[in-house]
Amino acid sequence: MKLDDHLPVDHRLSQVYRIGAGLMGLVLVAFGILGLLNHVGFFSLHGQRVAGLSSNGALSVLSIVIGALLFVGMVIGRNFASTLNMVLGVLFVLSGFVNLAVLDTKVNFLAFRMPNVLFSFVFGLVLMTFGMYGRVHSHLPHDNPYWRLRNPERAAREEAAREAAVSGRQQVRPRSSGPTSLRPQQ
Predict the structure, then answer these.
(1) Residues of the signal sequence (predicted)?
(2) 22, containing H or E segment
(3) What are the residue boundaries of the structural domains of the chain, listed by start?
């Protein structure tokens, strides 16, 4: 059994996951390429400025690899892209915390500075938002496959009612031939 086998597939939501993965991957690949063009040392602790962020060779290569992984998610799409966006988003937020702890130390191998930490937090949250879109909310529409998965009894009742309405099997109340009473029934 694969990780996403139990999740429903919804093509409309899949487009959001794919676009999110592609856009975020493009940002990372562009940052990584610009970093490599600066010819900074692979594990330089101070790095060079690239697009307002500090970068070294290791961070540039890592950015290209993660960006390529997001492109793979974009190509595959479906629930894989959603799960990949959420997992990488969480990893970016965790990376922000870890790199915040190693700022200005000798183990700052990715040459992070405070703008990098903030970028990591924001990038991770945006990536998680793309991944969770349409999956996590208290007011999902009833035709959403994730709502249907979480509420199978209600979904089955609604589907049966919808089928009955379409096929004309819906019970119709007989009309009374006499005058209608305005008094409420008890």
Answers:
(1) none
(2) helix 11-37
(3) 11-132
Secondary structure class of 85 (helix, strand, coil): helix
Share of residues in the chain with pLDDT > 90 (%): 15
* CA 86/CA 82 separation, integer angstroms: 6
pLDDT, position 170: 46
CA-atom Rg of the chain in angstroms: 26
Strands 48-50 and 53-55: antiparallel
Residue 74, judged by CB atoms within 10 A of its CB (0-12, 13-18, 19+), counts as buried
61-110 pLDDT, tens digit per residue, is 999 999 999 888 888 877 787 788 889 999 999 999 999 998 888 888 88
Cα(83)–Cα(73) distance, rounded to whole angstroms? 9
Positive or negative, the CA dihedral 119, 123, 124, 129 is: positive
> What CA–CA distance (Å, rounded) separates 183 from 186?
9
**What is the C-alpha to C-alpha distance for residues 22 and 69, in angstroms, rounded to an integer?**
10
Alpha-carbon distance of 86 to 138, in angstroms, equals 18
DSSP class of residue 109 equals T
Q: Other CB atoms closer than 10 Å to residue 111's CB: what's the count?
A: 24
